[in-house]
Amino acid sequence: MTEEQKSLPKWILIVSGLIALMELMVSIQICFSPQSVLETVDLNAKGVDYLIYMWAARQFALGFIFAFATLKKSIPMLTIAYIFFLVMFVGDFFIGISQKENALIIAAIAMCIVSSAMLFALNRRK
After folding, report:
1. Which long-range contacts (CB under 8 A, 24 or more apart) does 105-114 make?
2. pLDDT 10s per residue in the chain (126 long)?
3. Is residue 40 part of a domain?
């Protein structure tokens, strides 16, 4: 383990671990109970199951990446994960605006702030 990895604060690892866990749980929920996440979508429409599984795979991949980077205590890997997280939630923000869905807008803003704060904290460690 390098000196850089030893200096990574536990709170960063805890937040990153919680995000990993959250993303993995969302992935499982999307796969096994999509109606709880997609209330306004006709789940019987053709092709919707394909999109649901693609979304679940995206969430699972992000959770796995966060878990791996957290376990490795890798600042570069966590930085890349948080950049992806930030870009994803910027996209969600614009989707929320286009769909006029206030809950999505607020959640996206909150997660953009969290992502930005984590990127700032990680970059201070370099």
Report:
1. 111/85, 112/86, 114/15
2. 455 445 789 999 999 999 999 999 999 999 998 888 877 778 888 888 888 999 999 999 999 999 999 999 999 999 999 999 999 999 999 999 999 999 999 999 999 999 999 999 998 866
3. yes
- With CA atoms as reference, report the closest residue to 66 among 89, 53, 90, 83: 83
Question: In this structure, are residues 56 and 27 in contact, taking their beta carbons and an 8 Å threshold?
Answer: yes
User: Which structural domain range is residue 58 located in?
Assistant: 8-124
The gap between the terminal CA atoms of the chain, to the nearest Å, is 15
Domain count, the chain: 1
Residue type for 53, please? Y
What b/e readout covers 43-66, taking b as 16+ CB neighbours within 10 angstroms? eeeeeeeeebeebbeebbebbebb
